[in-house]
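queue> holo job accepted (heme C)
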Amino acid sequence: MFENFAGGKSGLFFLVFGMVTAVLVGVSVAVVFYVADIALEDPDEIIVDDAASPIYVNFQPEPEAVVSEDAYLAMGQYQAEFPMPQNVVVLQGQTTVEIIGYMLNHFSGGLGVNCSHCHTLENFAADEWDDPVGMRNKMVARQHLVMTGEINQNWLEYDQLVNLTNLKQPSGSVMACATCHNGQAQPVAWSASLDALPDDFRLPLDATFSVTEPGILNVNARDDEISLETVQYNQYVMYHMNDSLGVGCTHCHNSRYFPSYEGVPAKNYSLHMLQMSAFINENYSKYIGGQQPSCSLCHNGQVIPYGAAINDSVLPPHLRSNPPEGLSIEELGLDASMYERYTEHDLSADNPFYNQEAVSEGDADATDDDASVGMGG
Ligand code: HEC
Ligand code: HEC
Ligand code: HEC
Ligand code: HEC
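queue> job finished
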């Protein structure tokens, strides 16, 4: 009994001790979660989804969900018959197997479509068959290949970004199809939240930006000449940036002095990105259905766009921001006047992307071997 009582006493002690410990543990766990919560709210923190693909920033391509069985069968037969491609304009020098790997992860995976969205399964080299929509899609895809490579090479080259500011290293991520497409066949440049805003939220894409003399967006009263209207317009542009990147003003500004570029690497980046957007608008707007680029076209509410290629090495050489010697888009020697000639998904032989000549040659070769055209059905 006595022993029991003593046991009860120490039992009581342990009970109290246990309760105090539980409360302390509970409080510290709560503190940890609270702090973690604050940390997670920090827009600079890139939360990498474990399930994400190793080739994309937070994007998981799912070709197996969209590529049909007959397409898998056709690609197997095609690669056996043609170890080297017959009709590529941009992806030159790659083997058929390499191209198919890229098509699976970047084209079908990036756009969420079957191969037959852009090909006849009878012959992957064909630019012409009995499906005008598929033919147009293939032509647009070829143009978007060029566009992706040019954005990377003209605007996202590592050395260029590293020189923007000594406060931040570039992430190394570059453009892929999925950066704009995000698993959609027809992406929209303006997110729903931007669409709800007045037109004035559009970017000043006609302005001539100068890296050496920034100051297009004089929002404050630095210059007496600036009208209230201009100030308001520029504020709207700032909201556009907030919304597109999912950040607050201080991500890009030293809140004590907005004109300053000191200590805020994102502001230097943003000016560069504004110039890049103006470039896209001028050169590629007609290739993206006449849409005007916005910051959210790529960023979609994230600081580092989801669906960006994790680095150059996951892209075919011609698309890399830092292509091997002799393999840049420019060095492919595609006619610069192609921009002028392109209208409304032009499917005529005048369109240099429509490589009819190469197809006939390829077919002729195939016919020699095998008396059939291309895949031979
Ligand atoms: C969004 C459109 C699109 C989709 C989807 C697509 N491709 Fe392609 N594919 C193209 C374009 C454009 C080219 C030509 C690239 C060039 O000119 O450099 C091409 C080229 C090819 C070639 C090289 C053919 C040759 O010999 O010239 C093969 C093989 C190929 N694709 C297979 C596939 C497979 C397999 C799939 C499905 C997993 C697929 N593609 C999905 C647009 C697409
Ligand atoms: C800078 C952003 C951007 C990039 C990068 C990009 N696209 Fe696009 N793409 C768009 C937009 C925006 C549209 C919608 C155009 C429209 O509404 O007509 C589009 C439309 C298309 C279409 C036409 C789809 C249809 O159903 O009409 C194809 C095909 C296509 N893209 C393929 C590609 C491929 C393949 C790549 C990668 C090599 C790529 N795109 C990279 C922005 C982009
Ligand atoms: C994603 C980056 C980014 C975000 C977010 C952003 N800004 Fe800006 N802001 C810029 C850039 C870049 C410029 C300068 C453009 C130039 O020099 O032409 C600028 C210019 C300004 C200026 C003009 C300074 C001057 O040089 O006279 C003011 C004021 C300003 N922003 C206020 C804001 C406010 C307020 C917010 C939040 C509502 C905001 N910004 C959000 C990037 C950003
Ligand atoms: C064509 C696609 C594209 C468009 C349009 C675009 N960006 Fe970016 N942006 C990127 C990519 C890709 C990166 C990653 C670059 C890196 O880190 O190497 C990036 C990085 C950035 C960064 C640096 C990220 C950080 O840590 O803060 C800022 C800031 C930024 N963009 C602002 C903007 C603003 C503002 C606009 C609109 C004026 C814009 N971007 C439009 C593709 C785009």
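queue> The chain is about 45% helix and 0% strand.
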